[in-house]
Design a protein that fits this description.
heterodimer; A: alpha/beta; Rossmann fold; 4-stranded antiparallel β-sheet; 10 helices; 10 strands; disordered N terminus; B: Rossmann fold; Elongation Factor Tu (Ef-tu), domain 3; 3 domains; 6-stranded mixed β-sheet; 23 strands; lyase activity (chain B); EC 2.7.7.4 (chain B); sulfate adenylyltransferase (chain B)
Amino acid sequence: MNAQPDLTEAHHSGALASASINPSAHRLSQLDVLESEAIHIIREVVAELERPVLLFSGGKDSVVVLHLAAKAFWPGKVPFPLLHVDTGHNFPEVIAFRDETVERLGLRLEVARVQDYIDDGRLHERADGTRNPLQTLPLLDAIAAGRHDAVFGGARRDEDKARAKERILSLRDEFGQWDPRNQRPELWNLYNGRHTVGQHVRAFPISNWTELNVWRYIEREGIVLPPLYYAHEREVYRRDGMWRSVGPVSAPRGTETVEKRTVRYRTVGDMSCTGAVDSDAASVAAVVREITVSTITERGATRADDRISEAAMEDRKKDGYF
Amino acid sequence: MEQTPIHPLADGAQGTLFRFATAGSVDDGKSTLVGRLLHDSKAILADQLDTVTRTSIERGFGGASGGIDFALLTDGLRAEREQGITIDVAYRYFATDRRSFILADCPGHVQYTRNMVTGATTADAVIMLIDGRKGVLEQTRRHLSVVKLLRVPHIVIAVNKIDLLDYDEAAFSSVAAAVRAVTDELALGAVHVIPVSALAGDNVVGRSANTPWYTGPSLLELLETLPGADEVDRAVEDFRLPVQLVVRPQGAVAVATDAAHAFRDYRAYAGQVASGSVRVGDAVTVTPGGASTVVTGIDFAGQDLDQAIAPQSVSLRLRDELDIARGAVIGAAGTLPAPVRDLTADLFWLDPQPLNPGARVLVKFGTSTVQALLSTVTGRLNLDTLSLETASSLDVNDIGQVTVHLAAALPVETYAENRRSGAFLVIHPQDGATLAAGIVTVAGVPA
């Protein structure tokens, strides 16, 4: 099911989706339960907060959250804008996908550019060249400028041990900081998005989804992703045990040699620190098969920035990262 | 060590979702049990295992024997690893061919009530760990009391360290009898008691040859087959849907323009089915107002459903144009209680600041948030005896009985009748902090 171009027209693939909803059996599949939970969370945030925004990178998790939002408000439009924190180190096909999606759904896209901050000296390029940690300041400025009191993200608890402890609705202070030792208890399905002036809430509707759930859902719903999630030929070189793409911000050094390989990306982030994996999974079904036998987590396989230390993600989140 | 993975490629895709919480103290071997479940169900991937193994060796755990400190798998925060304690509930995910699991790992020793309540409110089952050598402790009773109050559908007692009891049937039987004495006293109904060794893997994933006298299922087999809370509740609870928002796109439709006109007058009430089920054609009542109408359509993002069941998120179309906004509750005709402004509740007080009678707060029931006065504290629950003691205030981690006066009437039910309609949050009106979890024990002024 790759031929489903429109997020909001999921009803056209209704025959596929409704097969999984069989009320007479009185048991909902895990995807149905996770989907309903996510839609409930998205609707709660929209109902209780004033100016939500969805962090949208064109990565699979944010695409899934957008799809869920489209279903939550059908036949109405998604009632909030999208925000992309652009590191300037993007895969061009992801930016193209982002812009097409925004255009098709008639949504508004806000872009916060790390490059602008580097150009005027508010941020400095890191020695290792990665710009993931530099996203925090532009993100917080964009949240303040848009007066957003709720920020949806596609983070999942199975990605990382720090994320495993974060609430679905996570309160952040005026510096965007997460205080893991002072989190609100989250009880039943009653979400509390109350906050004071200057604070905002990060909302993670797919907290309880695993990587495999996300792919199963993409398969079931016929959701279109940027092409680099599927096997393709690419010029790459080996660094830190991953295949890095050759591009303007990512070039081989020293003894690293460039070769042409069939690869795909399991995560899509800053091009300077996201690696590809050897794969011949060219379709959603093939990706699902590949993940079920994978012995390595998606972040372990493809994110150099999370290898810095066991607490890399926690440290970034405490500083206001998503 | 039992190393055989049972379901190497499992993703439970066709199966249901089952949420369970683990309770017990570190010394009971809870982290080891969690690690064992994740490890033996192949939920721990190579890179995670590498990291944990490396850290285990750095800390001198296991050493050359290759032992792994399983606690490192769930203790994700820097402070937790540095201090060797578990601070907060951690969520872990794994699957077998039959089912997918969400495990809420609740630390037992710090703020246990807060963590237990957080884990137990969404759990289909709670696994209570007991050190087989120590038997039932005061903490076991307390945990069981919390589980009882929160109506967790299934309770599983894992009597751990059975290897250290030389797999002795009589030793297990005496612990099991002591457990049953407590659960009978608390009127907990059926509980499952399993002899396990988390360290050696006995009866965790597969049935152990070391306990031939035990004929029941392994822990994982049990978790794979217990019915979920929704299935249990759906059979006995009436249909309820708290309205989250009204979907009324008018001009702003997202569908293709040639179909847009069809939605010009579209109006539906979006929400998650909190309990029971509803069919097209069913008669329903709406509060506030108490108007009766009929469900003319159930929409799910363009699909027309004949029926919706808990916990599906849907949009209901109704026959009559009624004044319905967020906070309204749609229920099966004739089953919604009359709205009340007074109620008695048990509060699990979770805030460091104590509750003093007369506090003005916000309470959130379903999709309604209203002001409330916590008029009087009528007692504090003694968790050891489940009896009410005299108290005039509540401290953090206390469970107390409180009378509540609402600023607006709501169709609340007792928690015993309906877990969703009888549960609420207590919220600080200024800073928005979640102060307490509440469950209604009496709706209306007590007779």
